[in-house]
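Researcher: I'd like a structural prediction for the single chain below. Treat it as a standalone chain; there are no partners to consider.
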Amino acid sequence: MSHPYTAHSTPAPPKIAFPILASVQAVLIFTITLIAVPLPLIGEEFGLTTADLVLLQVAYGLPYSGLLLLGGALSDRFGGSCLFRTGLWGFGLSSLGAALSLSFEMLVTMRALQGVAAAMVAPAAVAHVAALYPDAKRFDRAMARWGGISVLGAAAGTVLSGVLTTWISWRWMFAVPCLTVFVALTLHGSVLPVVRGRQAQAERLDLLGALLALIALVSGGFALSMGSEHSWTSTPVALTFLLALFALVGFLRRERSIAAPLLPPNFFADRRRVLGSLGILLAAASMGLVTFILALSLQGGPGWSPLATAMAMVPYLAVLILSSGPAAGTVTRIGSNRTMGLGLLLAAAGLALLTGFGPDYFTQILPGLIVLPVGTSLMFAASAVLLTQDVAPERMGLAAGVMNTAMELGPTAGMAGFLALAGLRSELDAGWSLSLMAAAGAAILIAIYAVFGQWSRANG
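Model: Treating it as a single chain, here is the predicted structure.
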């Protein structure tokens, strides 16, 4: 897999360059969950409602996911190196602004700007990985590790946020992305390859398509967030949902009618792309869902401290760390499709165990926190390979954009969608259990799709 638009000027070998890129990717995902545990404290400080807390949680992920397709197109066209540097500057400055926020509105704005910048960084980072590993087999192995690194970033954000919130302040959580940006920008020119874009620019960039995608994802996620507190038939929620629907239909029609779409319709003609997108979306959604529910329930009911809540997630993080390496090896040994099916079934079992969560940590919470991350690791590793396997190098930005869009839609729109089911129960704990059960059911359905897809390929 030789990249025709890459100048392979690599002063450092991949074993040095890859960890830098992986650290950036981990921090992009880490930033999703870095305020998950201190959400109740932030709510007290700014006087926030439950809907405000959900909005704050998704403020980063919605613009991130909404702009990733544009970020992928920019990376393919103008080069990963330029976009990587520009995005890192924006990500670092907005992270600093979030740490210094004086109001809820300022914090939400900074989180949104973080998402805009991350949408530029993520696809450019994958373009650099493709340049580091031009051989297809080595690239697949690297992407399997990439998926595991992403899930580790999300779990680390949950644990570290509880520690720093207890000892210092939740604001210091944003020091992690600031420090990572500083290191990456310092080493960029001497460690990473130069990744240039296409020289010929015959087609116009699909800015209208990017705008429609952004409106669809942001308005849809916002409507789901509002629905957790307001009636689903209320005018604001209904109008926002209609806006999301019209924008989505407009985006799909637009992509079918132009010569250079952000998301070519034939990209999902390969069932592997569909399965990879569904798998990574559900894996991220289940992580966000479990973190959100446990953070609020443990600190609200039993009255656990943020530190105790973070420590409760340590087994989850430990299992993720221990299983990430074997997960990448499993993809190599049995294939990405079978790995995905196995991961989905284990995730469904873990989520089902957590539906009976309660004050007894060791019997009602811990078993699920041990089983779920094993399945999640397998799902992330398989999804990263499924979404980038056999993709043309000049379309790697597109593949990375789709992968990260699914990864961001999970803990934003996906999580909000599952949480919306909680309103069907009069008691909050019962509603949250229903949300977890729905996620487990979704995992089983996607597992059936994975098995059917494997059978179809074997008999095709």
